[in-house]
Amino acid sequence: MFTIELNGKKQEVTAGSTVSDILALVGSNGKNAAVLVNEKIVRPENRSTAIVQEGDRIEVLVFAGGG
Amino acid sequence: MDLLRLGSYSFSSRLILGTGKFSNTQVMLDAVRASGTQLVTVALRRFNREQLSDDLFGPLYEISGITLMPNTSGASTASEAVRAAHIARELSGSPFVKVEIHPNPQHLMPDPIETFEASKILAGEGFIVMPYISADPVLAKRLEEVGCASVMPLGSAIGSGQGLKTSGMLDIIIRESGIPVIVDAGLRSPGEAALAMEMGCSAVLVNSAVAAAGNPAEMASAFSEAVRAGRKAFNAGLMPKSGHAVATSPLTSFLGTEA
User: Which residues in A lie closer than 8 A to residue B55 (C-beta atoms)?
Assistant: First the structure.
């Protein structure tokens, strides 16, 4: 286990976790979400192979209401 | 046909609707449908498992004929806005971006320098750039020169409902602009939207005026009709103003004359 920052909060994750695992962890199916790892976009086709590293800053973003 | 042209896109509706501040997603969707809009703004935010209904991409995607215009709200610098635009394009597939950079939450006035820098970069990258700006004719012209598809000057402060406080400056921007001018922010009533269109604006963008109305769908429909009426009046050509009375009936006297 190690710690990452997930949507601004500390999160313990299992070593070897992928971006897809992280999406499952937060409860997102990833379909309408953008994922950034250390400010870089991880495209849907790469999420199941992108391995998360200790200290990574991960953002899972969606569209919400806005003017 | 009288179409609103933005980049390579054409729209028959000249009403752009924001999706914020609605009491729930269904109320927002009903308002979008009632407005007849073809371009809606959305904002990026962190995914939250407790607020799954806030994820608007799916519901909006199901309304046919809708194009998304993500905004860069939350950005306080040009580089943050550019990053937000990249993420939003990845998510929406839409080339539209509303550049919105307001560092001060007290008044939400757009930062002209950061807005210019971000707009220049994004226009260079092929985005259809729609910057939200103060009603500044010089800035509007500079944004046109760097390839923005439109400029969106404010009528008054965001969400204030104070109407077209900037009408004098808007007149200058409209007269000088070679790109569509869209009044964004501050409108409260359909009458104000009609007035903006009569002045020669190419479209209006409203959010709070609809979301905070007693009946949002009815208000969205009223705005739709007002924008159409205002545009029709503009195209018809308003009569010239006169500083004195000009009679509409013959003034030749006959009632007082004796036979």
Answer: 32, 62-64
Q: What's the ipTM?
A: 0.90
CATH code of B4-236, in short, is 3.20.20.70
Interstrand relation of B203-206 and B15-18 (parallel, antiparallel or unpaired): parallel
Question: Which whole-number Å values give the CA distances from B35 to A47, A67, B16, B155, B219, in the listed order?
Answer: 38, 15, 9, 20, 8
- The boundaries of the domain holding residue A31 are 2-61
Residues of B within 8 A of A7 (CB-CB) are 46-47
Q: What is the pLDDT of residues A3-60, one digit of tens each?
A: 999 999 999 999 999 999 999 988 888 888 999 999 999 999 999 999 999 999 999 9
Which CATH number fits the domain that encloses residue A54?
Answer: 3.10.20.30
Q: Return the residue in B42, B44, B47, B182 with the most chain A beta carbons within 10 A, the one to mutate for interface testing.
A: B47
Q: Is residue A34 part of a domain?
A: yes
